[in-house]
Specification:
- Pfam families: PspAB.
- InterPro entries: PspAB-like.
- By secondary structure, the protein is an alpha+beta fold.
- The protein has one domain: BMC (bacterial microcompartment) domain (Alpha-Beta Plaits), CATH 3.30.70.
- The protein has five helices and eight strands.
- Strand 2 and strand 3 form a beta hairpin.
- The N and C termini lie far apart (39 Å).
């Protein structure tokens, strides 16, 4: 960082740390103890698709890499592609390994700038839904708790942030806790 950046209050952007995903299984245990939310067995990777045969081949290779994992590909209203992965609800470690593999494959092939986020979903004791979202470009996590009618349960999100703050690198800037309405699996 140069002196002009320091003077203007600009910092270097955070670098992605995909290995932070491996802290999710432990955080899931903490989350369950603190809030009663249990893993649902689904996770997603969201990315901006690239044009061309190389990307199509990579996407096919990633799906084959996952082997016996149930993978569902969807496109959202913003043009982003979501890969929804399903594992048994009690196997968060395998789900996280799969998510890491997808992200790593895209990153290694030069498509890292296309990655938006990954998420793991949870279900509350009363059927509430929750996602722990990993922001690829920031290397941080935040909770997203949707309610009916595209509303959010902000109190629950703050409660989850408090419960997981010692387990995961939490995104400090609340304006970056963007909603992932309609994310597959949520």
């Amino acid at each position: 960082m140069g002196w002009l950046d320091a003077l203007l209050g600009r910092g270097k952007p955070a670098k992605p740390n995909l290995d932070a995903l491996f802290a999710l299984p432990s955080a899931a245990v903490t989350l369950q103890a603190a809030t009663g939310f249990t893993p649902s067995g689904t996770g997603s990777v969201c990315f901006r698709p690239a044009e061309g045969g190389a990307f199509a081949t990579l996407e096919k290779d990633v799906t084959e890499l996952l082997g016996d994992v149930d993978v569902e590909r969807t496109r959202d209203a913003y043009g982003y592609t979501w890969l929804l992965l399903r594992r048994p609800a009690d196997d968060v470690a395998s789900l996280v390994t799969d998510l890491h593999g997808v992200n790593s494959s895209l990153e290694a092939a030069g498509f890292g700038p296309s990655l938006l986020c990954s998420l793991v979903t949870f279900t509350g004791p009363g059927g509430e839904r929750l996602a722990v979202v990993y922001l690829y470009k920031r290397g941080t996590f935040y909770p997203f708790a949707p309610l009916a009618g595209e509303r959010r349960d902000n109190a629950l999100e703050l409660q989850v942030r408090g419960a997981m703050s010692g387990e995961l690198p939490i995104e400090e800037d609340l304006s970056r806790w963007f909603p992932v309405w309609g994310a597959p699996g949520l």
